[in-house]
Specification:
The structure is a homotetramer. By secondary structure, the first copy, chain A, is an alpha+beta fold. Chain A has four helices and 21 strands. Chain A has a single domain, classed as Acetamidase/Formamidase-like domains (Jelly Rolls, Sandwich). In chain A, the strands form four sheets. Chain A has a nine-stranded mixed sheet with strand order 1-4-17-6-15-18-19-21-20. A six-stranded mixed sheet of chain A has the order 3-5-16-11-14-13, with no helix packed on it. A four-stranded antiparallel sheet of chain A has the order 7-8-9-10, with no helix packed on it. In chain A, helix 2 crosses helix 3. The radius of gyration of chain A is 19 Å and the shape is globular. The relative contact order of chain A is 0.19. Chains A, B, C, D: GO terms for molecular function: hydrolase activity, acting on carbon-nitrogen (but not peptide) bonds, in linear amides. Chains A, B, C, D: InterPro entries: FmdA_AmdA. Chains A, B, C, D: Pfam families: FmdA_AmdA.
Chain lengths: ~350, ~350, ~350, ~350
């Protein structure tokens, strides 16, 4: 990044419905930007905006595999396999004053699915419409079978962020894996920097699946789904690449694991956090294993998608003066603040 | 409870080494108390105090199955199968100024184990000794292969709390299951009320496995293990029983699931939280599923024991004026405060 | 064994209903025998004989935990922890001309269960009554919702065979684990020798859960359940003990793994087969791993019980002249033949 | 098929090394054939032929992702999404008089892997070279650390057979899933008809990964890998599509499940076998569940690949006169016999 403000200009990406993609891999870039560029982009919700009312059952108004549209891909100049793409989320704001959630036949954590195949009929398919009040910072839950209403805190995030996969694969946008994708972790909020392995020239970043908020595990299979206006900055770390996406915010180093069974997702995330900690603190592997064991957090992200996602978190307080990626997160955060202030 | 202070006297239980138990079930009570009684008890660490220095490798100084000793059982007068035993932790204080942690051959989340059987040799068995400074509220990590030292916040808890199992079973104290046992969740700290199913007359509560602190997942297999002095109050809820232990503190309703694979532990905990939420808020099951999906938290507890443990947490803010178990937690919390103040 | 016939007399064990046990561990022996003794015993079916007709729904006529009764325990003189108990099944014959099978609420592989907890209502509970024709060697399936009838080959076996568990545990008879128990493998038929770890003096063998036949996986949760008259011979191998039950017949070495998830049950069984093969053929671990990888079979046993069971099988053709346990299986098989011929 | 012999001519497909593919999806057809056509094709081994001797360690001589090459794709005229592609294997013959197997770093069932992430170093990487004697029907195992040699029966099969995936995905050839792919079941031998869902026009069949033989589970991660000359016949079933590949031979209906954890692979395969059985015998779902539970077999296929594979088998004896897909298997089998006889 070269400007005094720490970012290299801003570009906008507001795809038409026809430009939306439904996979990672298999697409030419919609946009190519230099490292350090701010990208302002819009995303559609996971239902393509087709679920707006109680009667809009997803299985009727959506058509597989046209679910979970993503905006992108954005190519980043100079990104080569073996590099790391850094993506800092400066702002994630609901683009609508409503969001929706739903059950979906044979999808979710507490239902038989196509993978956890059983002889049960699907649970009832039901839609909930949430009122989003961005000024108040709330989204309003309304029960469908009682009069209960209550406000939940708005906590906007993107469920789906990733790059083109390795090995020439093209994966549905609903799959989380080593390339990122549909990780569905509430940690992917504004103020977070995400680090992705670069698998193809340009990295090919795509973003979608905005959530006004989401519980850990995304138990019923969907969050408070809504369209978003999002501001992010991209940057590059040359010559190093993580095994799976890493995240960083002001308080935590965060690693992610995407696999089934859930203990393998846990193991992947913890294994990477042990390695990252060892590297930053100059510890041998077992000393880092010990430190992570006592200091780490381990919330579920999603337990409903085609892979499950666990995240592992280490408080940066234990890092002392060590900084991940030479302070990339802090630089991008500060650049984001200047950009937003100047906007 | 009948006294003005909300508790019915206090008794002490400081077992000799010979009185320590290594199972839930299969033991006569060491003590019988009325509901509402404060119990002050001491617990030994999971190694029976035998690991005190780097050279005290657990596999040498401990003898299977004499691991993870528990204090108890304590019988509660009037407890009958189908009831709920409430246990409020008023205080959990390290009884020593040191704690230990270790790897253990073929035990932990990032190693081959007897269940996840592989052809690898065990990882190195290594002991870490922590300095506990209760006044400062810290425990000091010292790396073994570098000079790194750092203080972690003290956050005392019990890994093992439970009652006699159902169906006449006797289970090793290292197993977490529907009766509680070695759940190893950091949520079991002072200020928490735990609710257990009563499976046998008297319930037969036992407590052990104090941790000066523990990361979520207990990745390496052990926490900062230390002896504890603990103050708790027991009480009874007649005629209702949870499927597995529930916890409550001032901020959260918490359910627990104990199973393998980890997604089943997750499912059990979420299933119970959905049911509990539905019952407290008068919601139908799907409305409660939706609310938990958006408002819940889902951290790992242990991913190393004979069953894995996940917890599910709902912020009590969403409950409005509804109170779990008619305010049992608040009553026990207040009684505990009065007892500690008067002590 | 000392007689010319290779067995040391025969005793009979036909428990009254009150003598039936529902656990491994926690019971005094009904009978004590010398190694080499033939035991003729009777077993009740897993429903205690209470399900006899379509209207006898198990959830109504059976009372938890009084399910899956076992006959025993039988103590074997001289058995000490660290030894191996050998049990050869000489004959397993249905004691009735009918058997039953059923679905059971929240039990089975293709239904939500208490562990794989979901929001579905249970599948329909339905009973099937089979006609057993021992002379013809068939059991007759009759569909409940159509007129289809067909004969399946009789293949009698015991689902539940085991010894008292280690570590002083008492486990429900429906649980399979390292002590054996409810393994539900069709390999446990007449002509098979099973080897169990001895965990307590006398070993304390119990047997139950006869199946007129069973598919691999016991998918719906029950087999063709029936009472059995069974002839077995017990013997001892001093100073060696397997990690989990092993089986042997004229064609195969068979190891068993009992765990969740199913891949851990697979891993345990394969790990033991690799070790057994290495030991018998004088191979290093990796050479044995390779041989088992190319020559082994790996059928599911049960995917419905509290632990799942996989078995691993190696054709004895690859063993050349090597014999497991110095030919114990062959000796017991021959003794059994002489006993049955003389009976 | 229209000829008197039941097949519509024969074509040959012998790709150059440059024509080999490493994915399902993402490739134009090498060949387009009519339904009923015999295809004679050659396949390279999973190492691309680069592992020929003990010193050819796969991690050195192979380059990810150029592993597990497949021959194809072959387009079948008239195949449309929603149809079923039938592929009958008439002959699978080793093209060499040697095969190889190996361990591979962090790959296999009894080792830490990238998914089951652990802190262990990889197991030793070791290559075994087998002598294949097609006339004798054997392949010769030679231990590497002892003098043991023994002949195993030749049982040639293809580990990898599949079609282009649904949803526009491109998947590495080492992944088994609903499109088939690297299922690694020993059931894929000559005499078997495999049925695949058609996801794209032409279906786009590819075949590779020949095994001179393979144990169930493919425990060490590789079988006796060799190049093959294979004869197959393709045909179409219009307007019906299975959820995942089904197989049929003269003795059994066979379904497949591809997932993690292994119990989900089991569930998928059993669920499909229940549905198939219900449909062929006119049973309701629970009656079919019962029949499969008592009559079915359930061997592991692979427990090492990116998804695990279980198969479920029902003896065709229980079908009476019912025939799957109107006798497609029998017709293709007979056509294959005529073709081979006339060749």
């Amino acid at each position: 990044m070269t400007s005094d403000d720490g970012f290299r200009g801003a570009v906008s990406l507001r795809p038409t419905p026809e430009q939306l993609a439904y996979s990672f891999g298999g697409h030419e870039p919609l946009l190519t930007v230099e490292p350090g560029t701010v990208v302002e982009l819009s995303t559609e919700d996971c239902f393509g905006g087709a679920v707006r009312a109680h009667e809009d059952l997803p299985s009727r108004v959506c058509t597989f595999p046209y679910l979970n549209p993503v905006t992108g891909p954005v190519a980043v100049t100079g990104a080569e396999p073996g590099d790391t793409l850094a993506v800092h989320f400066a702002d994630i704001s609901p683009a609508r004053d409503w969001g929706v959630s739903s059950t979906f036949p044979h999808f979710g954590a507490l239902t038989a699915t196509h993978a956890t195949a059983m002889l049960h009929e699907p649970l009832e398919e039901r839609v909930w419409v949430y009122e989003i009040d961005s000024a108040a910072g709330t989204c309003r839950f309304r029960a469908r079978r009682s009069g209960l209403e209550l406000d939940l805190p708005l906590d906007p995030m993107h469920g789906t962020v990733g790059v083109a996969p390795a090995a020439g694969e093209t994966l549905m946008s609903i799959t989380p894996a080593a390339h990122g994708g549909n990780m569905d972790t509430p940690e992917m909020r504004a103020g977070t920097t995400a680090y992705f392995p670069v698998n193809v020239p340009g990295a090919l970043l795509s973003v979608g699946d905005g959530h006004a908020r989401q519980g850990e595990g995304e138990v019923c299979g969907t969050a408070v789904e809504t369209a978003m206006n999002t501001v992010l900055i991209v940057d590059l770390i040359k010559g190093r690449t993580p095994a799976a996406p890493r995240l960083e915010n002001d308080g935590f180093l965060i690693t992610t694991g995407h696999a089934r069974p859930l203990e393998d997702a846990f193991r992947i995330s913890q294994h990477d956090l042990v390695g990252w900690t060892a590297s930053l603190l100059g510890l041998d592997q077992l000393d880092a294993y010990q430190l992570v064991s006592q200091a780490g957090l381990a919330p579920a992200a999603n337990v409903c998608d085609t892979n499950y996602t666990m995240v592992a978190k280490l408080p940066k307080a234990v890092l002392g003066s060590a900084k991940a990626y030479d302070g990339m997160h802090e630089r991008l955060r500060d650049a984001a603040a200047r950009y937003l202030a100047a906007r």
